Please model this.
Amino acid sequence: MDTYLTIAAPSEGLYKEKMSKFLAFAEPCRTTEQAKEIVTRYKKEYFDARHVCWAYMIGAERTDFRSNDDGEPSGTAGKPILGQINSFNLTDLCVIVVRYFGGIKLGTSGLIEAYRTAAQEALNAATIEEKIIEETITVHFQYPLMGDVMRIVKEENATVLSQDFVEDCRLTLSLRKNQMPRMRSRFENTFGVSILDK
Model:
């Protein structure tokens, strides 16, 4: 797979249960640092709320994730929020659920249901988009080979990210992950062209 799903823009949801209000927010982010900044921002904005629970998922491989119950009983808030991110098969986002306590306890199963539903509401409201995973490659060659190299770039539909023609020639190229092996092998089989990355 060389694509992944994420959300195009921030979205919101709301769930009410026994006087408690659960405000849910989903925001796109690309790094764990960004996710942490989002959480900090919501904690400041909703400083008067009883709990600000959250989960994030980062990266196309979906291996970098965390969740937090923020004082709710263990496993009743962060995990259900993360579960919704997983059920939508999303990454590169952070979901926050802010709880205003209404005075009536919901119990463990009630809390799980409330946080799950609130997160689901925010994700239902989101615009989900598919992104392509791209890889980059840098090739090095002498100027007389420019025509051969540029023909491969054009035929493979690669994007030129940077170019340097001062002493010799270097091109940094970007291409869809599943098409990269073919382009790489074409450069490897072109006499005088070397690949500078891994």
Remarks:
- The first strand starts at residue 3 and ends at 7.
- The CA atoms of residues 29 and 93 lie 5 Å apart.
